[in-house]
Amino acid sequence: MLTDEERTRFLDHLLAIAQAAPRRTLPLLRRQAVYLLGFDWRQGVLDWLRAEWQQASRLSTGTSIAALLEARSASVALAALGETAHIHDFVESTGDEQSELANMNYWANWVGEFLDDQHSDDFMVAGARRGRARTCSTTSRVVCPRVAANG
Questions:
Q1: Percent of the chain residues past pLDDT 90, beyond the cut
Q2: DSSP reduced 3-state for 114
Q3: Which of 1, 2, 87 is CA-nearest to residue 38?
Q4: Is 86:74 a contact under the CB 8 Å cutoff?
Q5: What pLDDT shows up at residue 62?
Q6: How confident is the model at residue 127, as a pLDDT?
Q7: In terms of residue numbers, what domain contains 106?
Q8: Which of 89, 87, 120, 116 is nearest to 102 (CA)?
């Protein structure tokens, strides 16, 4: 268990990482730091997350998978802090087929559906999925029941 001082220092470090990590060269590190800031209830961090969500959601309107994931990380962090409108806005803005496929591949990776490690975001983009996937398992049916129902 962390002391209050250790927790504050840890969260300050996450904020510094999120602010300093370049979007283009360290996207995963940046996204993870943003996501984890959802555990920091300080007003300054909440304000920073709101600004991050504004910027990330503007970037995600294109076809960039990295921008889409940034917007999701900020949306989830804000939802963890009680601001659920952002996650609803994110979901509504990502209803196209490419975004849905990217989201499904993202979660399939996290729940162990890919047999190979994924080292970039490229596997989430339609037609660029690399590695071997497990056969349709119970996990797949839970992650995306609509796809499982359709075969």
A1: 34
A2: strand
A3: 87
A4: yes
A5: 58
A6: 56
A7: 96-151
A8: 120
pTM of this structure: 0.72
Residue 46 CB partners (closer than 8 Å, separation 6+): 40, 78, 81, 83
Give the pLDDT score at 151: 44
Structure tokens at 87: 């996650």
Q: Which ranges of the chain have pLDDT less than 50?
A: 128-131, 135-151
Tell me the CA distances in angstroms from 40 to 5, 34, 35, 44, 95, one per residue in order.
13, 10, 10, 10, 29
Output the pLDDT for position 25.
Answer: 83
The two tokens of residue 100 are 């849905």
64 and 138 in a common domain = no
CA-nearest of 45, 41, 71, 44 to 56 is: 71
**Domain boundary at 94, 124, 141, which?**
94
Residue 75: name the closest of 34, 26, 104 by CA.
34
